[in-house]
TrEMBL record:
UniProt main location, coarse: membrane
Protein location: Membrane
Keyword presence, rRNA processing: no
Name recorded for this polypeptide: DUF423 domain-containing protein
Amino acid sequence: MNRTFITIGAICGFLSVALGAFGAHMLKSILTPELLADYQTGVQYQMMHSLGLIGIGLASGHLKGSVHLRRAGWSMLAGIVLFSGSLYILSLTGVKMLGAITPFGGVAFLFGWLSFALAMKQPSK
């Protein structure tokens, strides 16, 4: 078990709930429906990938030292920062240029899930 990824996943999950509540209660009357939807997308993807990080941490107990699992975990964290982070900042500032960062986070998520799948194909130790 990799406690680092489990801890990071739990912290990101906590932040996802806090940011979701903030958006629902504080931003609903401030943001346009389009910007609020972007914000909520960031929250949803952060939560999904927080759970992915916890799963990676738990899986690492069966695949000790897996390079693919480490790549998967760090890629998912990068995706949370780039994808969700850019959507949060875009929503709060209205600066549309920040949307150019979001796809890099999406690619990090894809790489993370692919790496997770590759790790699962390895024999357990």
